[in-house]
Amino acid sequence: MNPPTILGRRLCGAILGIAMAALATPTRAQSDEPGCRPEMASYRLPIQRAALAKDEVRLTFVGHATFLIETPGGIRAATDYNDYVRPRETPDIATMNKAHSTHNSRNPDPAIKYVLPGWDPSGQGAAKHDVTLGDMRVRNVPTNIRSYSGATDYDGNSMFVFEIGDLCIAHLGHLHHPLEPGHLRALGRVDIVLFPVDGSYTLDQEGMVEVLKSLQAKVMIPMHFFGGSSLERFLRRTDGVWATERKTEPTITLTKAGLPAQPTIIVLPGN
Fold first, then answer.
1. Any idea what DSSP says for residue 53?
2. More confident position, 32 or 170
3. How large is the greatest C-alpha to C-alpha distance in the chain, in angstroms?
4. Strand locations in the chain, DSSP E?
5. I need a labelling partner for 11 at 20 to 30 A (CA). Which of 27, 56, 157, 247 fits?
6. Could you give the CA distance from residue 163 to residue 201 in angstroms, rounded to a whole number?
């Protein structure tokens, strides 16, 4: 057999290179898929979620006092929207309170359609919000708040009510005092309540138990707890009063028909 010519050797090398490239192509394509490389975690890629049925609401505990509420029509609302703890998705509606900087934003995302402060920025009285976007209605119920000097800032904050289909969700915000009959009438029927349990910055835990008893919501989801110790104290206090369910995921899907028969505290992971 004659030894290969220089041209033959080059041709063989080219063919081998093409073959190796073809074998390597699937590996490169796979490594370029979102989530397959560590650096992709910082790219804030959109989260793909399953579509909701017409009677469902999706609730995600983002952290602190922030929840993302999603409707079957694709409307998203974020509670106590701030510059530190935010949902990955840009909400259509953002509610805020002014107790601390972790409950409001100085730089809300300009893509948000409605930014609803729980106070009147002009200082002329109570905030008044009643917004309907798609299949979500959001309204506020003003509450008082302690000022930094220790005085009372009347109507300085708000509770927000989210009405989606047959479900009514109340976010109590940075509540500092018991609810009066006027507050209860303004809130109306509450199916799901999101409430703070720290017991110091907001209403004390004994007072919060009384608030929950007055609301009689079927689902009660705690928020605004630090390191878990305040949450556990609250759960010990309510042991024997209400059933408690602990979830392993921060997202829960709820329906009117699927609400528990008896009022139940549902704990979502986070802080």
1. P
2. 170
3. 103
4. 56-63, 66-70, 76-78, 93-96, 114-117, 130-133, 136-146, 152-164, 167-171, 192-196, 219-223, 243-246, 251-255, 264-267
5. 27
6. 28
The closest alpha carbon to 242, from 193, 176, 169, belongs to 193
For 222-235, letters b (16+ CB in 10 Å) and e give: bbbbeeeebbeebb
As a dihedral over the C-alpha atoms of residue 138, residue 153, residue 107, residue 74, rounded to 10 degrees, the angle is -10
Residue 141 CA to residue 68 CA, distance in Å, equals 19
The residue-averaged pLDDT of 197-223 equals 96
Confidence at residue 40, expressed as pLDDT on a 0 to 100 scale: 34
Tokens of 245: 């369910």
Nearest to 207 by CA among 140, 128, 155, 143: 143
* The pLDDT of residue 97: 95
186 exposure class (CB count in 10 Å sphere: 0-12, 13-18, 19+): middle
CB atoms within 10 A of CB 215: 21
- 193 forms beta bridges with 170, 220
Residue of 170, 184, 165 lying closest to 223 (CA atoms):
170
242 near 263, Cβ under 8 Å?
Answer: yes
Beta strands of 16-108 (E only): which ranges?
Answer: 56-63, 66-70, 76-78, 93-96
Output the pTM of the full model.
0.82
